[in-house]
Specification:
LysR-type_TF_proteobact-type, LysR_subst-bd, 9 helices, alpha/beta, DNA-binding, transcription regulation, LysR family transcriptional regulator, 13 strands, elongated, 291 residues, two-stranded antiparallel ribbon, nine-stranded mixed beta sheet
Length: 291
């Protein structure tokens, strides 16, 4: 809040309690602070609001006019804020959340810390292990999933999207890779739930998914990156995970003009009529953040 509005609020509290000392006790602020802020407000308005003496604080005519105009506004604000605090305090319980380790680190950890600060009575039980669809009902309440995921079992709303890229170690010769089908002659490492990279086929005039069989399948995208950095294998990674190494020359993109489509990330939750308030709070919070 603007400090000027703060001064109006403090003035109303002084007027409401009848003295700087009583307002100080109620607000938990030093009397010297209240006296200084009141003096600053009077100087800004060029009017005296309160006649102060050793025995009492009396509103001036101007002070009474300001108080009668402002007090209802701040009373309404105090009431709304108190109701909001009560609403938040009523939301509690455990939310079982699933996301890959890389998605958790890149997109969620900072936001979830803020969410817990707002809703301290909600407990987040987070798993970064792989998730199969049936587990969304039995083991998980909300999940962040990657790729197109139509299902009759749960709601999947797009949260954000990121480019996916194919990468090789910086000193690996990839000059013979001219088209997507050339990748099938190379050893590819990917995760167990990797979404096949998408490219536009100019001959067919349509989007196509890369048809490949991974040479190595790992459980986490960080392991994909580590493997590519230490072998001659080719890896499939979200662009955000490879950007720093690409800029440093440790990795390089394979067919960058071909593979540049974005992959959707979905927030998925159980399809049911009555979603618990704690889950609604997290769902709304995440969409507010990702907009």
């Amino acid at each position: 809040m603007n400090s000027f509005y703060d001064d109006y609020y403090l003035f109303c509290k002084i007027a409401e309690h009848g003295s700087i000392k009583k307002a100080s006790d109620q607000l938990g602020l030093p009397t010297s602070t209240l006296s200084r802020r009141l003096a600053n407000l009077e100087k800004t308005l060029t009017v005296k609001l309160i006649d102060r003496n050793a025995f009492s604080n009396q509103l001036t005519v101007s002070g009474e006019q300001y108080f009668q105009s402002l007090a209802p506004v701040f009373e309404s604000l105090d009431y709304e804020l108190e109701q909001r605090r009560k609403d938040i305090s009523d939301i509690s319980g455990k939310i079982r959340l699933s996301a890959s380790n890389s998605v958790y680190q890149q997109f969620l950890v900072e936001h979830l810390s803020e969410f817990i600060a707002i809703y301290p009575d909600i407990e987040l039980d987070i798993t970064t292990e792989g998730l199969v669809e049936k587990e969304l009902n039995s083991k998980v309440d909300i999940a962040v999933l990657v790729g197109e995921l139509p299902s009759k079992y749960f709601v999947a709303r797009k949260l954000t999207e990121e480019k996916q890229c194919i990468v090789a170690k910086g000193d690996v010769d990839i000059s013979e890779i001219k088209k997507p089908r050339d990748l099938t002659r190379h050893k590819i490492v990917s995760t167990q739930v990797a979404v096949p990279p998408v490219y536009y086929d100019h001959d067919l005039r349509s989007l196509m998914s890369l048809d490949y069989k991974p040479f190595i399948t790992v459980s986490d995208l960080n392991m994909v990156k580590y493997t590519v950095l230490h072998t001659n294998y080719i890896g499939i990674l979200p662009e955000y995970m490879a950007k720093q190494e690409i800029e440093a020359g440790q990795l390089k993109r394979v067919l960058p003009d071909v593979f540049n489509e974005k992959i959707p990330y979905y927030l998925a939750y159980r399809k049911k009529a009555d979603i618990p308030r704690r889950e609604k709070a997290l769902i709304n919070f995440m969409f507010d953040k990702f907009g």
